[in-house]
Amino acid sequence: MITRYFENISFAWPWILWLLLLVPMLAWWYWKRSPGKRATVIISTNSAFERGSRGWKARLSRLPFVFRLLSLVFIIMALARPQTKFDEEQVKGEGVDIIICIDVSGSMLAQDFTPNRLEAAKEVAANFVDSRKTDRLGVVIFSGESFTLCPLTTDKAVLKSQIYSIQSGLLEDGTAIGSGLATSSDRLRTSESKSKVVILLTDGENNGGQIPPVTAKEIAKKLGIRVYTIGVGSEGFASIPVQGSDGRVSMQREKVNIDEKLLTEIATETGGKYFRAADNEGLARVYSEIDQLEKSTVEVTAIHRFTERFLPLVLAAGFFLFLEWVLRLTLFKKFP
C-alpha cells in the first residue's frame, strides 16, 4: 500500500525533505541520554533481581519516542506537499484532405519491388496514413476503370484495413489515369479544407477510361486540388506474372513504360510535384517528402493538473502521536 502511494508522487517543495536529517540526529541524541547508557554504581546485592523485574515494560520504554519520530517524519513529508500530476494534451489544428489514388492494374504485380509494386505501394501508403494525425484521408483505386475504396475519413484503422485489402484484378484491367484522377477529384469536390491533395501512383501509360487525363487535370485545377504524381518501376525491363490460357502462371519480362511527361504535366499544372520511384526505399522517400511538403497546422496545448496528496501523511502523523499519548497516559505514566 505504501509503495503504491509513492509510485506517482512528486513533491512541490522537495527542499523541505532535508529536514528529515533531523530524525537520525534526534535518535542519536535520545540514545546518548538514555539511562541505560549512563554510568551507575551498584550497591545492592539484589541488583540482578531488579534488572530482571523490569521485564517487557523496560524493553518497550522507547516506543513513545519511536512513535514521536515517525509522526515527525510524516509531518515533514506532508509539509513538502506531495502531489500527483495529470498531463493532458489538447490538439487543435487544420488538417489536409488527401486522396490516395493507386493503380491496381496487372502490371503492378511486377517484381522489381519487394515483393511487388502493389504490395510496396500498399505498405508505404499505410505508413503515410499513420503519419497524418489530424488529416482526413481516402482511397481511390483504378485500372481500366476507377472506384472509391474509402471516402474521406479520420478513422485510420478503417482506412488502413481498406488499403491492405487492395488486390489486382478487382477492376477491369488497363490504366485509366484520367478516370482515377477524376474520381479522386470528385471525392474532394465538397471538401471545405483549405488544402486538398491527390497522391496518384501508377506504373504505366494511360490506355483506357472514359475521361482523358487532360480533362481530369483541368477538373483538379478548377477545384484547387494539388496533385502529386508517382511513377513506380525500375529502368528497363521487369518480371511480371502472366496467366496463360491453361491457367498456369509464368513470369514474363516486359518493358517498363511510364508516361513521365503526362505525370509531370499533371503535377506541375496543379501545383504539385512528380516523383519517380525505382525501388521500395525510393517509394518510401517519396511519401516522406510529400509528408514534409503537406504540413498540417496543429496546435498542441499541454495542461498539467496537480492533486495534493498530503492528507494520508497527516493522518499517519496524527495516528502515531495518538499512540504516543496513549502509552504515556497508561503504561508509562509517571506518578509524582
Short description:
The protein has helices at residues 2-6, 22-33, 47-53, 55-59, 63-79, 117-131, 156-164, 177-187, 213-222, 260-269, 280-293, 311-329; strands at residues 9-11, 82-94, 97-103, 136-142, 146-153, 196-202, 225-232, 237-243, 249-255, 274-277, 297-308. It is built from twelve helices and eleven strands. The model is unreliable at 38-44 (pLDDT under 50).
How would you describe this structure in keywords?
alpha/beta; 11 strands; 2 domains; 40% helix; 12 helices; Rossmann fold; six-stranded mixed beta sheet; 336 residues
- Assign a percent range to the helix content: 25-40%
Give the SSE string: HEHHHHEEHEEHHEHEEEHEHEH
> From the coordinates shown, what is the CATH architecture of the largest domain?
3-Layer(aba) Sandwich
Tell me the count of domains: 2
Largest sheet: 6 strands, mixed
Q: Class by helix and strand content?
A: alpha/beta
In DSSP terms (H or I, runs of 4 or more residues), the helix count works out at 12
Stretches where pLDDT falls below 50 for ≥5 residues? 38-44
Distance between the termini: 43 Å
Give a count of the beta strands, DSSP E runs of length 2 or more: 11
- Please indicate the percent range of residues in DSSP E strands (runs of 2 or more): 15-25%
Write up this protein.
- The chain has helices at residues 2-6, 22-33, 47-53, 55-59, 63-79, 117-131, 156-164, 177-187, 213-222, 260-269, 280-293, 311-329; strands spanning 9-11, 82-94, 97-103, 136-142, 146-153, 196-202, 225-232, 237-243, 249-255, 274-277, 297-308.
- The chain is elongated and about 110 Å long.
- The chain is α/β, with parallel strands linked by helices and 336 residues long.
- It contains 12 helices and 11 strands.
- It has 2 domains: 2-86 and 309-329, no CATH class; 96-295, Rossmann fold (3-Layer(aba) Sandwich), CATH 3.40.50.410.
- The strands form 3 sheets. Strands 5-4-3-6-7-10 form a 6-stranded mixed sheet, sandwiched between helices. A 3-stranded antiparallel sheet has the order 1-2-11. Strands 8-9 form a two-stranded antiparallel ribbon.
- InterPro entries: Aerotolerance_reg_N, UPF0353/GerABKA_families, vWA_BatA_type, VWF_A, vWFA_dom_sf.
